[in-house]
Design brief:
The radius of gyration is 20 Å and the shape is elongated. Strand 4 and strand 5 form a beta hairpin. The chain has about 120 residues and is mainly beta. The protein has one domain. The longest helix has 16 residues. It has 1 helix and 8 strands. Strands 1, 4, 5, 7 and 8 form a 5-stranded mixed sheet that branches. The chain has a 3-stranded antiparallel sheet with strand order 2-3-6, with no helix packed on it.
């Protein structure tokens, strides 16, 4: 009897402790982009903003590359709905290294995009 209660309690704790997976969304805007290329690797450094506090894991995700232009999304995980957050623009930064070559890089955010030539 005790072992079944312990098992039930352990399962309930594990199920309750499992956070819902946050779906990544594009950040609100991109404010700056620096792109350079060296030894076949493109270095991307992006600065932008999200609309509230609580956003986590900002990153750059490659969408497509056509040999000339590399298109990237600036993403982050929004806060959970029940979380209390600051209601103000909050800066975010992300960096990525992509193997390959390109003449330009286009980074997409929710409200804008920036295209930059690749510096060699």
């Amino acid at each position: 009897m005790k072992s079944s209660r312990a098992f039930t309690l352990a399962c309930a704790l594990l199920l309750g402790a499992t956070p819902a997976l946050a779906v990544e969304k594009r950040v609100l805007r991109i404010d700056g982009l620096i792109v350079s290329q060296k030894h076949g690797v493109i270095l991307l450094q992006a600065k932008g903003a999200v609309q509230t506090g609580g956003w986590t894991k900002p990153r750059l995700r490659v969408m497509r590359a056509d040999g000339r232009t590399l298109t990237v999304e600036f993403l982050a995980s929004p806060p959970p709905p029940a979380m209390t957050v600051i209601d103000a623009l909050v800066p975010v930064n992300a960096e990525a290294r992509v193997k390959g070559r390109a003449a330009s890089v286009r980074v997409l955010a929710d409200q804008n995009e920036i295209t930059s030539q690749v510096l060699r």
